[in-house]
Amino acid sequence: MLRPLQYHIPLSEVIFAVSHAIDLVDPSLNQHNEKVAFVALSLSQEMGYSVHNSLEIAYAALLHDIGSLHISIPLNDEGCFDRSQESFPKHAFWGAYLLENCSSFSFAANMIKYHHTPWHKVENRISLMEAEGAQIIQIADIFVEHTSAHPYAYSFKSSLTEIIKSLSGKTIRKDIIDHFLHLLAKEAFWLSALQSDKSSFRKSLLHGSGHALLTWRELTEVAHFFSFLIDMRSHFTASHSASVSAIGKNMAILSGFSDREVEEIMVAGYFHDIGKVAVPVSILEKPGRLTDDEMLIMQGHTFYTREVMKEMSGLEKITSWAADHHETIAGNGYPYCIEGNDLSSGARLMAVADIFTAILEDRPYRKGMTRKEAMAVLYGAVANNKICQRKVDLVENNFDLLFKALKETEELSNDRFKAFWAKAMIIKSDGKPMKKVM
To answer: Least crowded by CB within 10 Å, which of 41, 47, 89, 430?
Structure first.
């Protein structure tokens, strides 16, 4: 077994990776989460919060729109969030429910759940720090959406100040508005908030005092969380990442990988498709053949897997194994056309694990292949110099074991998804369940 202290991954880096993934869902929002986090950190510091609590609020702000991975946020004609829509707050409740199920992120759940809720409806529901954090994120969110919608935002300063004042004592508690108005009076805040380069802000969050380090067990849980995020976007692939992780782990054991490498392959399997957040669900769920344009979009997912994982230092090998699973022995894969001699054993293994899982798992629109059909596909790919013959021979010699692992993981994942959807019916602000809208 791995010793937990062999990995020291800062929680802040993992949160930036999640935030990066959220941004990929809708690039038009242009680093919205990071901008909101900057404003939230500035306001919490203005209010005298400790470094630890200020960082927690900023981290929650980085994650505040995670629910948009599954529920789109309505916009009005001006490009601002349409808060009049009944569906508007639903992404907040979805986001909270997602985070409650990951111990490393659960601290942010209540702040995200109530970041669109008026003060009088939240003050007695959760802790004071969480309630104020939700209010800070809400006012930061409003500031960023208005400034982002106006190209000459600084000239919009007086009008926006009046908008902020109108929220006092209604949506936002009066003293929080007063602190924010004091912040708005400083030109330095405006100039910092509106500049596109947030490198100094990122540095303060990534290297600020008191930031937590994740153990290997916690990182594995986070990786599983990432796989859940992407697999949950489409019921067509509801167990795919977990299954690739399980098949990869079993193949690594059979291949004689070290205990450490076996665990790393498992984590790479969880992460391998996170870049698919950049792919529209309409393409993910298309049962027929993709058009050339759709295929180009789909092929971009491995590039974005690497981009998201680059946020986390020390995971270079795992990142390579996860992101290179569509490279080929012939060197004509995507997205980097890595030559076969430069393709690691882990990446070769992941490529076969991914294909094995994809062709044998059941999908809503078709059953998985038979053993004969599956091996024909795998050896056909070998003949075309796409994947490693040794890895395919390994699969053939251990087919029953791997197929059993696939079906067990598929069943467990599907049970988890059914339980999640049963609990995660959209919850109204009064806490009563609503009919599911997926």
So the answer is: 430
Looking at residue 288, its pLDDT comes to 80
Residue bearing tokens 């680093």: 31
Cis peptide bond prior to 10, omega within 30° of 0: no
Q: How far is CA 244 from the centre of its chain?
A: 18
Quote the CA–CA distance of 40 and 45 in Å, as a whole number: 9
Single residue among 184, 213, 242 that ends a domain in this structure? 213
Residue 73, phi then psi, degrees to nearest 5: -95, 120
Burial label, 390 (beta-carbon count in 10 A; 0-12, 13-18, 19+)? middle
For the stretch 357-399, pLDDT in tens is 999 998 767 789 999 999 999 999 999 999 999 999 999 999 9
**Domain of residue 104, CATH code:** 1.10.3210.10
Is 426 a residue whose pLDDT tops 60?
no
Say if CB 317 and CB 309 are below 8 A apart. no
How far is the C-alpha of 43 from the C-alpha of 46, rounded, in Å? Answer: 5
* Last residue in a domain, options 194, 213, 232: 213
Whether the CB-CB separation of 122 and 134 falls below 8 Å is answered with yes
Count up the domains in the chain and report the number.
2
